[in-house]
Amino acid sequence: MASGSVVVLVHSVMPPATSGAAFTARTGGSSPAEQVPCYAFDAAADEYLDFYCTLVGYAGGGLTFTLTSMAATATTGGALVALAIRRIQDDAEDVDTAQTYDYNEVRIPCASASGEYSYDTITFNSGTDMDSLVNGEDFIVRLRRRGSDNTASTGDDQAGDWQLISLVGRET
Amino acid sequence: MAVLTDQQRAEVTATFMQQAKGPLSILKMDVRAAVDALDAWYDANAGAINQAIPQPARGALTLTDKAMLNNMVVDARYVRDVAPAPGSA
């Protein structure tokens, strides 16, 4: 696959056992109204969402994830959002054991209106940054909003939920 | 009654951000500042609010029932019939 090609096949989405983001729908403004499916991440605590994926057609150039999101009610501030990869290597990785997720984090400023989409990216370099994941393997992408942070201007200062619409993974 | 604890104020802040009608053009710390200020105001003016309740209700109602009464009046005046902004809970 070439740079920019979609190489992450998401086959399941599941909140973790605790501190998971809630699946919800945002009512649109048309008649009949859209019901925009999204996952809502709280503003006052860290919340997570796991994506169960397979790497398909990956040529070793690293990964770029595009996150599409909205603010539930905020029109100012930003959210600290991070991704981490857990490689599920054949006959080697036991999901019954603990993983220390190593996050790549960005601050996503909210759009000027709370119903507007925001498109942002998080990148992973090939190799240990993506848990040494190789083509054809399954892996878990864990998404986190660090709602426990309240740092003004550079941290997570966005009031209200951060709503994830979609996650797409491409070769960088 | 003393002002709310830091943890209680944090919980009020979190609950408000979940339930606010929106849109919110302020930051998380601004919401918290408003919670702190309202809590302090209630602490300073509890006596005046109590005096606004005529007898015999003032003497017969418990503190909890007076607080519920206050909430119900505020809700009916300012909250109940307001539609939430799109995206809010």
Kindly describe this structure.
The complex is a heterodimer of chains A (172) and B (89). With 172 residues, chain A is an all-beta fold. Helices cover 0% and strands 48% of the residues of chain A. A five-stranded antiparallel β-sheet of chain A has the order 1-4-9-6-7, with no helix packed on it. Chain A has a five-stranded antiparallel β-sheet with strand order 2-3-10-5-8, with no helix packed on it. In chain A, a hairpin with a 7-residue loop joins strand 2 and strand 3. The longest helix of chain B has 25 residues. In chain B, helix 1 packs across helix 2. Classes of the chains: A mainly beta (172), B mainly alpha (89). At the A-B interface, loops of A face helix 1 and helix 2 of B.
Key attributes of the depicted protein:
heterodimer, A: 172 residues, five-stranded antiparallel β-sheet, 10 strands, B: 89 residues, 4 helices, 0% strand
Helix and strand topology:
The complex is a heterodimer of chains A (172) and B (89).
Chain A: E1 8-14, E2 22-27, E3 35-41, E4 46-55, E5 63-71, E6 78-88, E7 104-109, E8 118-124, E9 138-146, E10 162-171
Antiparallel strand pairs in A: 1-4, 2-3, 3-10, 4-9, 5-8, 5-10, 6-7, 6-9
Chain B: H1 6-19, H2 28-52, H3 57-60, H4 63-78
> Which range best describes the helical content of chain B: under 10%, 10-25%, 25-40%, 40-55%, 55-70% or over 70%?
55-70%
- The SS-based structural class of chain B is mainly alpha
Task: Work out the helix count of chain A.
Answer: 0
Q: How much strand of chain A?
A: over 45%
Give the tally of β-strands of chain A. Answer: 10
Q: Roughly how many Å apart are the termini of chain B?
A: 32 Å
Report on the biggest sheet of chain B: none
Q: Could you list the spans of chain B in which at least 5 consecutive residues all have pLDDT below 50?
A: none
Q: Distance N terminus to C terminus of chain A?
A: 10 Å
Mean pLDDT figure of chain B: 91
Strand content bin of chain B: under 5%
Widest β-sheet, arrangement of strands of chain A: 1-4-9-6-7
Q: Average pLDDT of chain A, to the nearest integer? A: 96
Helical amount of chain A: under 10%
Shape field of chain A: globular
The ordered string of helix (H) and strand (E) elements of chain B is HHHH
Q: Identify low-pLDDT runs of chain A.
A: none
Largest sheet of chain A: 5 strands, antiparallel
**SSE pattern of chain A:** EEEEEEEEEE
